[in-house]
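Reopening: structure tokens for the nicotinamide-adenine-dinucleotide complex, inputs below.
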Amino acid sequence: MKVLVTGGAGFIGSHVVDRLLQSGYEPIVVDNLQSGNRKFVPPSVRFVEVDIASPQIEVVFATEKPDVVIHLAAQVDVAYSIKNPVEDANQNILGTIRLLACCHKYNVKKFIFSSSCAVYGEKDDCSIKETFPIQPQSFYGISKFSSELYIQTFSQLFQLPYTILRYANVYGPRQSAIGEGGVISIFFKNVLNGKAPYIFGDGEQTRDFVYVKDVASANVLSIEKGTNGIFNIGTNSKTSINQLFQIINSLTNSNISPIPMPEREGDIRFSQLDNTKALNLLLWKPDYDLQKGLNETLTFYKGIQNKGN
Ligand SMILES: NC(=O)c1ccc[n+]([C@@H]2O[C@H](COP(=O)([O-])OP(=O)(O)OC[C@H]3O[C@@H](n4cnc5c(N)ncnc54)[C@H](O)[C@@H]3O)[C@@H](O)[C@H]2O)c1
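Re-run output (same inputs, fresh job):
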């Protein structure tokens, strides 16, 4: 089965491609390499350098005729979206609509979308269910929710099956030190170089950190399951930024003090995703707890450091 992966040269997308190969699917990657890296895509996988928001994307559908589209390509930086809402909407909303129109025209059997817990916005300190009110605090969050609405309406009008995955904060090997949820890669890169990273606000804001290989498996399970559903993909646990920093200090045998900075615009205070629906209907479960995931991530960053020396 042919699976078109948009953003397949990126952090999460490249792990999705790895998992697709392991599971016997035939991935094809489209990516404009805005933040992705060609080296993350295995040489055996067909790679097309194209912008999903450009008309040229249709050529890929016409020539490859994919069965399934896993759509991860996006402008992923919340702060960038606040400064550049037009460009954010162009890539994230118009890019998604262009893909959906191609899926309809070329009879794609399923559309799997990478959404975000950023659609929920500010909530009390509780575990967020998919049914919670939508209230994005950033243009990025709006772009993800708008895309969800377009997907659902394409499905109603043209019977395009979909699965929407709302990720918590994803971390792991190949994550860049910028963008949404990049705090773990930023902390590791700084601490391993003996530098103090910034902590914004009082550091008591919490995040639900989910390991990238678990997110990749949720995408691959969605090819067969979870049709026309929306699923939180998180661990249903929370860690404060201060706690996270302590764990990273201890894993790296460091004793660095972070630099306090003012709270950032658009940052949410609490984040923990209830994953019951994904456990029951996608038959997904996270295989990595934070300790195991951080250990694997540390091994990756140490490997990069050694190569650089
Ligand atoms: N990392 C997280 O914690 C997180 C959380 C929630 C949702 N998401 C979503 O997951 C998806 C993947 O994010 P990521 O963290 O791997 O980011 P990433 O920046 O590593 O990956 C995005 C990929 O998309 C490509 N891309 C961007 N715009 C494109 C365009 N117009 N045309 C073609 N390719 C384009 C980039 O070059 C990159 O390879 C995104 O949709 C993001 O919004 C990520």
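Residues 2-168+210-233 form a domain with the Rossmann fold fold (CATH 3.40.50.720). The chain has a mean pLDDT of 95. Marking as resolved unless the reporter disagrees.
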